Amino acid sequence: MQPLEVVAAVIEDAGEYLACRRGPGRAAAGRWEFPGGKIEPGETARQALVREVAEELGVGIRVTGHLTTDDTGGIRLVCLMAELDGERPTASTDHDALEWVPRERLAGLDWADADLPAVRLLARPR
């Protein structure tokens, strides 16, 4: 069976990264993730990410590069680096909390399994 193709935005702003906590009633509720969602047929990962972030967070982003692609538990998660195109988001349709986290605090959150490879890359000492 093919993994579910999902894309996530690793949004950096002023040295902090946007972490979103999954809301009640959702898979992995209460765990943190980078915002994003399913890649629809005919979409590139970049197109899907821009659409998903606009739908979930009501903000625009610019994709600046690829961080990692990993298969975890039936999900292929493509993590793309991004920057905001405007103000920081204040709410989400899919999450009950948004937090801007400095690199050194990323590993301290309870991340969804699929996001852990990206968190490990970001949290590595430079």
Automatic annotation (TrEMBL):
Cofactors, names only: Mg(2+)
UniProt EC number: 3.6.1.55
InterPro entries for the chain: MutT-like, Nudix_hydrolase, NUDIX_hydrolase-like_dom_sf, NUDIX_hydrolase_CS, NUDIX_hydrolase_dom
Protein name (record): 8-oxo-dGTP diphosphatase
Catalytic activity: 8-oxo-dGTP + H2O = 8-oxo-dGMP + diphosphate + H(+)
Source taxon at top rank: Bacteria
Keyword Metal-binding in record: yes
GO BP, sorted A to Z: DNA repair; DNA replication
Pfam families with a match to the protein in the record: NUDIX
Molecular function terms, GO-annotated: 8-oxo-7,8-dihydrodeoxyguanosine triphosphate pyrophosphatase activity; 8-oxo-7,8-dihydroguanosine triphosphate pyrophosphatase activity; 8-oxo-dGDP phosphatase activity; 8-oxo-GDP phosphatase activity; metal ion binding
Residues in Nudix hydrolase domain copies: 1-123
Family: Belongs to the Nudix hydrolase family.
Record key words, sorted: DNA damage, DNA repair, DNA replication, Hydrolase, Magnesium, Metal-binding, Mutator protein
PANTHER family: 8-OXO-DGTP DIPHOSPHATASE, NUDIX HYDROLASE FAMILY PROTEIN
Gene3D superfamilies: Nucleoside Triphosphate Pyrophosphohydrolase
